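Notebook p. 47: complex prediction with D-xylitol-5-phosphate.
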Amino acid sequence: MFKLAPSILSADFARLGEEVKIVEEAGAHYIHIDVMDGHFVPNISIGLPVVKSLRKITDMTLDVHLMIAEPERYIEDFAEMGADIINVHVEACKDAKKIIERIKSLDKRAALTIKPSTPIESVYDYLGELDMVLIMSVEPGFGGQEFNPDALKKASKLSDFIEKNNLLTEIEMDGGIYLSNVNEVLESGVNVIVAGSAVFGSKNPSEAVKSFYSTFRNFKNN
Ligand code: DX5
Ligand code: ZN
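Predicted complex, C-alpha cells below:
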C-alpha cells in the first residue's frame, strides 16, 4: 500500500492546525515533520512543541525527520511528544544500532535516513531492526529543490534487497516529488512519498492529496 506524507515545511505555520486537518480529511496517512537545527543542516525549522501540538489534533502517523546533530540526545523527548516514526540520519549517528534500539524500546517506529551522497549499503546492517528507510532525493535542509534521480537507483537496490531477505521495511523518499514524477518514484520500489511543495505549496492541498492517491491507485492497477 502506498502512503502520502505531506511535509509541513511548506505549510502556512500561522494556520498549521487547519492545514494539517485538510490533508488528513483528504486521506493522507502520514504527516511529515522536518526538524532542523542549523547545524546538521544550514536551516532552522521547528521542534518539540510543534510535534506536541500536532499530536493533540490529528490521528495521522507523525513522521518526524530529525535533521539534527547528536539525535541520540532527543529521542526520548520526541517519543514523549507523540512522534510515531523517528527518522535519524545515519550521517549524524555515532552508534546507529543503539539509537534504533532506543527508539524501538520506546515503542516507536525507527527509520534511518540517508543524504544524496550516502550509499544505500550504509543501512543494510540495520535493516532487520528498521521499520523504514528514508532516501533523500534532495540535499536535506530546504523545500522546493530539484529531484535528484540517483535516489531512484538506491531505492531499486534497496527494494531488491528487502524482497530477497523477506523484510518488511518501508521505503520513503523525500524531496522534489510532484505528481509529474511520482510514477517513476513508485516504480523504483518506494512506498511512502513525502511531498511538501506539491501539497502545501499548491493552490488546493486537499485536491493535491487526492490526486496523489488516485495516481497510487492507477499505478497498482497497471
Ligand atoms: C527537506 C525536507 C523535505 C521537504 C521536501 O530537507 O526533508 O521534507 O519538506 O519538500 P519538497 O517536497 O518541496 O521538495
Ligand atoms: Zn523531510
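Notes: The longest helix spans residues 205-221. The two ends are 14 Å apart (CA to CA).
Next step: compare against the earlier run before touching the bench.
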